[in-house]
Amino acid sequence: MHNHQSCGKEQRAWLPLPNGSVAPHPWCMKCGVVKNLTEDRAKKMGYWMNLLAEIASSFGISRAQRRLAALALQAYDGFDDVYSMTGEAQKKVFAKVIKKYFGISESVVYSFVR
């Protein structure tokens, strides 16, 4: 992933917001991705790694399984991109990875997310 470079004010794209109105959205001049302007902000990778460790400790998950889950999150394209990713999308990816490597239901994983 690269550092996003937002376009200038005059180049912003007018796009819809979740409430039905429209607003000018900045976009990255390097890759073209549009910046997430909703209240559903993504969290940095450290938050998810701490949460992974908390869940693993609560359920007695082995270090090998923890490492595999951590690598899967890091390998997921755009997971740690707080410029364009939404928090809800991150939650879904995180829950699927934890379910796959820890065998814990997604609803239990969601109960740990703050």
Features:
two-stranded antiparallel ribbon, mainly alpha, 114 residues, elongated, 4 helices
Anisotropy-based shape: elongated
Number of domains: 2
**Global structural class:** mainly alpha
Q: What is the overall pLDDT average? A: 94
Report the span from N to C terminus.
26 Å
Count of DSSP H/I helices: 4
Q: How much helix, percentage-wise, in residues? A: 40-55%
Strand content: 5-15%
Rg, please?
Answer: 17 Å
As residue ranges, the low-confidence spans are none
Biggest β-sheet description: 2 strands, antiparallel
Structure report:
There is one protein chain. By secondary structure, the protein is mainly alpha-helical. It has two domains: 1-38, no CATH class; 45-112. It has four helices and two strands; from the N terminus they run ββαααα. It has helices at 45-59, 63-75, 87-102, 106-112; strands at 13-16, 22-25. The protein has a two-stranded antiparallel ribbon with strand order 1-2. A hairpin with a 5-residue loop joins β1 (13-16) and β2. α1 (45-59) runs antiparallel to α2, α2 packs antiparallel against α3 (87-102) and α3 packs across α4. The longest helix is centred in the C-terminal third of the chain and has 16 residues, at 87-102. It is elongated, with a radius of gyration of 17 Å.
